[in-house]
Amino acid sequence: MRTEIEKLLIDAIEEQNLYLDEPVDLSMGNDAALYSDVGNLDSLSLITIIADIEKHILTHFSVQLRLANERDLNISNSPFSTLGSMLNYIDSKLSATLQLECDVA
User: Fold this and answer.
1) Helix (H, G, I), strand (E, B) or coil at 62
2) Residue 66: helix, strand or coil by DSSP?
3) Which segments constitute the Carrier domain (predicted)?
4) What CA–CA distance (Å, rounded) separates 61 from 51?
5) Full-prediction pTM beyond 0.70?
């Protein structure tokens, strides 16, 4: 599952890179800066990526997730600061939601 999420995330970032003056450098792997003081994403780019990921998760996993709220968009402690932190955040949210659905069923 984590590999699929990583591919969805990288695809969403690469798609958004087409519209950025300075694209995200994904060659840094999990340390690639996204939404931070040194990252290339502004809040609109981040929201676009998040919306794309939410749509793909619904399609691939049949789960509707809400990945961001106002607290998460605070740049100083955002779970979206690097590729690795965003991947971990999405993976944990999806895993928790899938586990909850299994517990209910």
Assistant:
1) coil
2) coil
3) 3-94
4) 15
5) yes
